[in-house]
Amino acid sequence: MKIAREGAKLVGLIVLGLVLAGALRWIGGYDFVNVVEAHYTYIIVFVVWLILLFPVGEVIGYYLKKREPEEYRGPGLEEAGRVIGRLERTIILIFYLGGSLAGVGFLVVAKSIYRFGDLKKGYEKKTGNGEEVTFSISEYIILGSLLSYTAAMIGGIVIELLVVNLGLSFGFSL
Comparing C-alpha atoms, which of 114, 103, 119 is closest to residue 156? Predict the structure, then answer.
């Protein structure tokens, strides 16, 4: 059910982009505002950014929640992972569109250094048949980060492909 709801959000955001583009075309047709090609590019960037924030973030969160053992509830702020993920994807998208892949690398390294202490944490649990299962928080953090980074980079690539193939211009080179 949650995946269907996120799919509906995705479709809604795409429709929002089309409505904004149509409204912009209508406004430009009546010479209310001088419509430049860059406005269409901004709509594309805005819609892809919203998709990265909400539907993609919810899918990543849903995926991670299914893999997080019920016994593990790490200390921290409520919903902090969701906010951190949104900020990560936003910053990575900005770096990508700005042509700074080194900035993406810096973010990966900075987060790794900051979370280094957390990577050693984990717990062990005995199952019903006597087997010992170990859950490492490092796997959970790395999985969430890599999913977030990958989604943001794919979003940047989608923006670049749309802008280039539609013949639009951007304020700076992609």
Answer: 103
pLDDT, one tens digit per residue, over 24-40 is 777 776 666 666 677 78
Distances (CA, A) of 62 to 7, 22, 137: 13, 34, 17
Which residue is associated with the tokens 């209310």? 32
- Read off the tokens for 7: 């799919």
CB distance 101 to 95 below 8 Å: yes
**Per DSSP, which regions of the chain are E strands?**
122-126, 132-136
Say which DSSP state 107 is in.
Answer: H
Which residues lie below 8 Å from residue 47, measured CB to CB, with a gap of 6+? 13, 14, 16, 17, 20
Distance CA 60, CA 39 (A): 30
Domain boundaries, the chain: 2-165
Could you tell me the pTM of the whole model?
0.76
